[in-house]
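User: Can you model how magnesium ion sits in this protein?
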Amino acid sequence: MSRTLKGPEEELSPTLQVSKVSESVEIERPTEVKDIPPAKLSIRNLEAWFGTKRALKGINLDVRENSITAFIGPSGCGKTTLIRCLNRMHEMTPGASAKGQAILDGMDMYDAKVDPVTIKRRIGMVFQKPNPFPTMSIYDNVAYGPRMQGIKNKKTLDGIVEESLRGAAIWDEVKDRLKSSALGLSGGQQQRICIARAIAMKPDVILMDEPTSALDPISTLKVEELITQMKKDYTIVIVTHNMQQAARISDKTAFFLNGEVVEYDDTNIIFSTPTDQRTEDYVTGRFG
Ligand SMILES: Nc1ncnc2c1ncn2[C@@H]1O[C@H](COP(=O)(O)OP(=O)(O)OP(=O)(O)O)[C@@H](O)[C@H]1O
Ligand SMILES: [Mg+2]
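Assistant: Here's the modeled complex, given as structure tokens:
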């Protein structure tokens, strides 16, 4: 990762120039806000490439802890590419590369010293199509990650599986059939198993790429309710094409276009009084 990138402090340079021009000018300084915690995840000048095609053109975005951040924008604008960069999956695509920084709790996850496996443990992922491991039982799907981390004790695993399934609001529906195949469940249930599988790794951040687009309205509402409850324990990023969903569940929304963030703000502002005309056109359904 490049170390020559501009940091956020450089954005303050206009203020510094003012103070150089005239020492007597009173500069209004922003009041320090104590209640706002630092960003859990800071994305700085992140670029992603597929061969020579630049899919992300320098993304800057802060994701706050214990919040839900929605990524919206038309097809092909780079939402999936960005979340795949955020858990070091992007680079697994042949010919793909990334440049810039993605800082998790102060650690640049692209630093050469950082092991991508650690990142995948700390940043969980839920995909568009529920993808439980097809040959495994419900129990084994959820226990898979902890087992890979070396946990063998049955009691410990039982505890993790129950806690994760409860956390994904599906324990009551599956507790009597833990040994049966996860494929025997409905799509909405399978997606909650996938969320349980992500939770079992005790991640800091959970990235969800259109997690309800394959679900019926009732399962969608269940998963939305679940995501809303989960934010007290996790930091969540969700990609969605469903404007109502973004408006219903997210705290912050980023609107993407052609590999760039056009606007990023509180969700209610994005959906009521966005600054950029392109955001307004998109959220009101005039294009995309
Ligand atoms: N494996 C790939 N190889 C080459 N180009 C790719 C690959 N995956 C994505 N792209 C390109 O990168 C750009 C961003 O794609 P991405 O999948 O991130 O968009 P998206 O916003 O998630 O779209 P959608 O809403 O349709 O899921 C697009 O131009 C796409 O064609
Ligand atoms: Mg996508």
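A couple of observations from the model: The beta strands are 39-50, 53-64, 68-72, 96-104, 107-108, 123-126, 205-209, 235-239, 252-257, 260-266. The longest strand covers residues 39-50.
User: Helpful, thanks.
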